[in-house]
Amino acid sequence: IVIQCKRYRRKEKVGIAAVQQIFAARAFYDAKEAWVITNNVYSPSAKKLAFKCGVTLIDRIGLCQMILKLHPDESARQVLDRNEFKGGESYVGRKKR
Fold first, then answer.
1. For residue 55, which of 13, 15, 23 has the smallest C-alpha distance?
2. pLDDT of residue 83
3. Residue 24, SS3 per DSSP
4. Which end of the chain, N or C, is less surrounded by CB atoms within 10 Å?
5. Element (H, E) at 32
6. Per the domain annotation, does 48 fall within a domain?
7. Which stretches of the chain drop beneath a pLDDT of 70?
8. CA–CA–CA angle 60, 70, 30 (5° rounding)
9. Which InterPro entries does the entry link to (predicted)?
10. What's the structural domain count of the chain?
11. In this structure, are residues 53 and 24 in contact, taking their beta carbons and an 8 Å threshold?
């Protein structure tokens, strides 16, 4: 699986370029699946291309559902607040302290 994560502001939609990039990455890395995950939503053109190319799109609601499936006794916010993630940023949607 190749996965691309996109962090966008509330009023911005993830566009077709993200789908094009992950589609190319799937071919380049010879992956069986390609996913784009965002903290927001997708544009209609991104959804259409993803459907045609077999790319899985996971939006804000889907991301929260994934988190809650792994931690059913907590809210998504509780899971994020109690975990310290390593990397360039603490995690999507949280301001650096």
1. 23
2. 65
3. helix
4. C
5. none
6. yes
7. 76, 80, 83-97
8. 70
9. Restrct_endonuc-II-like, Restrct_endonuc_IV_Mrr, tRNA_endonuc-like_dom_sf, Type_IV_Methyl-Rstrct_Enzyme
10. 1
11. no
